[in-house]
UniProtKB/TrEMBL annotation, chain A:
Residues 22-223 form the ABC transmembrane type-1 domain. The chain crosses the membrane at residues 20-46, 67-88, 202-223. SUPFAM superfamilies: MetI-like. The keyword Cell membrane applies. The lineage of its organism: Bacteria, Pseudomonadati, Pseudomonadota, Alphaproteobacteria, Hyphomicrobiales. Its main location: membrane. Pfam families: BPD_transp_1. This is ABC transporter permease. One of its GO terms (cellular component) is ATP-binding cassette (ABC) transporter complex.
TrEMBL record, chain B:
The chain crosses the membrane at residues 26-43, 55-73, 160-183, 189-210. GO terms for biological process: amino acid transport. Residues 17-214 form the ABC transmembrane type-1 domain. Keywords: Cell inner membrane, Cell membrane, Membrane, Transmembrane, Transmembrane helix, Transport. One of its GO terms (molecular function) is transmembrane transporter activity. It is a multi-pass membrane protein. This is ABC transporter permease. InterPro entries: AA_ABC_transptr_permease_3TM, ArtM/GltK/GlnP/TcyL/YhdX-like, MetI-like, MetI-like_sf. The lineage of its organism: Bacteria, Pseudomonadati, Pseudomonadota, Alphaproteobacteria, Hyphomicrobiales. The keyword Transmembrane helix applies.
Length: 237, 240
């Protein structure tokens, strides 16, 4: 069979499956990045806080996550999570047997925990780029911390952080390929399956690589636009 | 905490450390030459050299490393040309496939670091070197390289740590380095949390050692940024 039949949408083509799997990759990476943004915001806030305990915890988190391979984190969440679930279900619910965690949820969570460490540094840097006068002014007009975060800090931090967050997203997207070890049918696993059953692994892994590149290019464009939009009120040298 | 189990796990995983270090060292070493070549191509200004280098860096930085590993390990073997070539004894082995993928990957990332370092050399320095009549080679050795290396070192230390972490992907294609051994021990004992905890500690200490070593190198390479030590001799000279 010719390569375009194999990659096409005909009866023997894998095109549709690959596109669905690419959607799955996009979904798990997006969920991971959003979880990472939440964890990263918390960690950045802890790093900037006055409390020594919070700072130490956040520093430990970013140091550990940047020093340990993401694959180990995914293994730990996947197998460790299954162990915990099995323990809970046998002791609380009284069931017997192995309970495995849902691959999508645990994959997104593991990606988020890995990515949060990087995002925390980006957000911290963006916060430090904010001029102190604005925060002082917000305090002076009597804004509550929450209102100040919503009106003054949040929008500006996001503006400065867009380029860095874009890098984090690209990392998250590439790391999402590792979720393949949990058995989630994302792009890499689907192309592996297709490559094995058609004995054309090179073709399908190349197709996967191209799809990853397409996602990278498109999301890069989106981030560039977002940056332009967010910076439209700024004077640039 | 079961200290005895953690200890026996540590002993079971430690034999993977040399493999991890070898994978990193070989691919970083070859990758550095690749990076230099790519950076030179990027900076040559000739479109026939610039475009391929840009495309290479874009493709290898834009796709997951695991896809690259699969493409080389599973993908290349489907071609009979590859199977009959002289390289087959290497490409048949997961170990060399992992090294090839890691090398190609780090080459792309490191070339950007090298390029940044080279571009950071102030033009005045190069002008002065030219004015002093240095040949290109002497200029590179005495002026450009030292300045560029110092500038690129922090970025390169990040890349080294990323590489140590990336070698864990080799475990997916059956290589028993730290992660591979940890996975084996974990699936034999069903004590995933403790085993991966120990493996994580090993990676952390490796990365800590590397960070420290590079920091020491940076310190050694930038004596001009350190405050002058107050030696007795200097004080005597000042007194005179």
């Amino acid at each position: 069979m010719a390569w375009y039949d194999l990659l096409g949408f005909g009866p023997k083509g894998w095109g549709l499956q690959l596109l669905i799997a690419a959607g799955m990759t996009l979904a798990v990476a997006t969920c991971g990045a959003i979880i990472g943004l939440m964890i990263g915001t918390l960690a950045a806030w802890a790093k900037l806080s006055r409390s020594l305990v919070a700072r130490l915890c956040a520093d430990a988190y970013t140091t550990i996550l940047r020093g340990v391979p993401d694959l180990l984190v995914i293994y730990l969440f996947y197998f460790g999570g299954s162990l915990v679930l099995t323990y809970v279900s046998s002791h609380v619910l009284g069931t017997s047997g192995f309970v495995s965690v849902p691959a999508f949820a645990i994959g997104a969570l593991a990606l988020g925990v890995c990515n949060g460490g990087y995002q925390a540094e980006v957000l911290r840097g963006a916060y430090l780029a904010l001029s102190k006068g604005e925060i002082e002014a917000a305090r002076a007009v009597g804004m509550s911390p929450l209102l100040m975060f919503r009106r003054i800090i949040g929008p500006q931090v996001l503006r400065y952080a867009i380029p860095g967050l874009g890098n984090c997203w690209q990392l998250c997207l590439k790391e999402s390929a590792l979720v393949t070890v949990t058995g989630l049918v994302e792009l890499l696993r689907q192309s592996n399956v297709a490559g094995r059953s058609t004995r054309e692994p090179f073709l399908f892994f190349s197709a996967a690589a191209i799809l990853y590149l397409v996602i990278t290019i498109v999301s890069g464009q989106i981030f560039e636009r977002a940056e332009k939009r967010a910076m439209r009120g700024m004077r640039r040298a | 905490m079961d200290i005895a189990f953690l200890w026996s796990t540590l002993l079971a995983i430690l034999p993977g450390v040399p493999t991890t270090l070898k994978l990193t060292a070989i691919s970083v070493f070859i990758g550095l030459f690749l990076a230099l070549a790519l950076a030179a191509m990027r900076l040559s200004g000739h479109p026939l050299l610039v475009l391929p280098a840009r495309a290479y860096v874009f493709v290898f930085r834009g796709t997951p490393l695991l896809v690259q590993i699969y493409l080389i390990y599973y993908g290349l073997a489907q071609f009979s040309v590859v199977r009959e070539s002289l390289l087959w004894p290497f490409l048949r082995e997961a170990y060399w496939c992992a090294i090839l993928a890691l090398t190609l990957n780090t080459g792309a990332y490191a070339s950007e670091i090298v390029r940044g370092g080279l571009q950071s050399v102030p033009f005045g320095q190069i002008e002065a070197a030219r004015a002093a009549g240095m040949s290109r080679l002497v200029m590179f050795r005495r002026i450009v390289a030292p300045l560029a290396i110092r500038q690129a070192l922090p970025g390169y230390s990040n890349e080294l740590i990323l590489m140590i972490k990336s070698t864990s992907l080799a475990s997916i294609i059956t290589i028993f380095e730290i992660s591979g051994l940890a996975y084996k021990v974990a699936s034999e004992t069903y004590r995933y949390i403790e085993v991966f905890f120990v493996a994580g500690l090993i990676y952390l200490s490796l990365n800590f050692a590397i960070t420290r070593a590079i920091q020491a190198l940076e310190h050694w390479l930038s004596p001009h940024l350190r405050p002058a030590p107050a030696t007795p001799l200097l004080n005597e000279l000042k007194a005179v």
